[in-house]
Amino acid sequence: MTTLGIVRKNMNEWPTDKKLILLPGLDGTGLLFKDLITELPTNCIIQTICYPSSQVQTFEEHVQYVLGRLPNNEPFTLLAESFSGPVAIEVLKARNHQIEKVIFVASFAKSPRPLLLRLASRLPFSTLLKWHIPKFLIRYFCLGKNASSELIRHFRKTITVIDPKVLAQRIKIISDIDKTKELQNIIIPCCYIQATHDRLVHSSALKVFQYGLKSLTVKKIQGPHFILQAAPKEVAKVICTEIL
């Protein structure tokens, strides 16, 4: 369920019947949820659904993978980070789970930068992932200027877990994705957490959600695209507010 060895804060106000399921971003490992989980109450029931790190999957296979791991007979809130946003939208179409709310984090319903992503999907990731990615690039595009060396090390280590072909496939999926029409069929309450200094997903991505969703709250948090990792305390507060 949650990562072993994580020490979480003792906040007993969390109801025992409220479950939170986390869907990871592009890495798919769930390892980058570590600091967020630490900030959530100890009695919060958390399940992380991690995508396969060495198995190339189509978008539809990602959706089926998640559907096969969601609880069938209990209510829960679904948190979808970045890449998992479109997956969550498609999951909601099934309507065979008791999803009470979806929290989209720095995510998108349609490709945020299609041309750039199509080019990126053709890069030699097997070679690039062997390089020592400079700290300034990780800070600028991903974790923000105040990212600690420890967080950067954890980020680098996480990236090396993923098969380069898997990463390339997920980037290709993002380059072609468009789930804007599906948004109009979502009737459950949703929340969108926007990172104010997101250099990977343009701010216009939020407008798509605002136009398509019937019930949406928006929370803006100062920080970069990887806002769950850069500002876990602030995100945890939003999650508690939205669920309680």
Which stretches are poorly predicted, pLDDT < 50 over at least 5 residues?
Answer: 1-5
The CATH class turns out to be: Alpha Beta
Note the overall shape: globular
CATH superfamily assignment?
Alpha/Beta hydrolase fold, catalytic domain
Characterize this entry briefly.
The chain has 12 helices and 6 strands. It is an alpha/beta fold.
Description:
The chain is an alpha/beta fold and 244 residues long. The two termini are 21 Å apart. The longest helix has 13 residues, at 149-161. Strand 1, helix 1 and strand 2 (45-48) form a beta-alpha-beta unit. Helix 2 (59-67) packs across helix 3 (84-94) and helix 4 (114-120) runs antiparallel to helix 8. A six-stranded parallel sheet has the order 2-1-3-4-5-6, with helices on both faces. 41% of the residues lie in helices and 14% in strands. It has a single domain (19-243), classed as Alpha/Beta hydrolase fold, catalytic domain (Rossmann fold, 3-Layer(aba) Sandwich). The chain is built from twelve helices and six strands.
Task: State the main characteristics.
244 residues; Rossmann fold; 12 helices; alpha/beta; globular; 14% strand
Topology readout:
Elements: E1 19-23, H1 34-39, E2 45-48, H2 59-67, E3 76-81, H3 84-94, E4 99-105, H4 114-120, H5 125-128, H6 135-143, H7 149-161, H8 164-176, H9 180-183, E5 190-195, H10 204-212, E6 216-221, H11 227-230, H12 232-243
Parallel strand pairs: 1-2, 1-3, 3-4, 4-5, 5-6
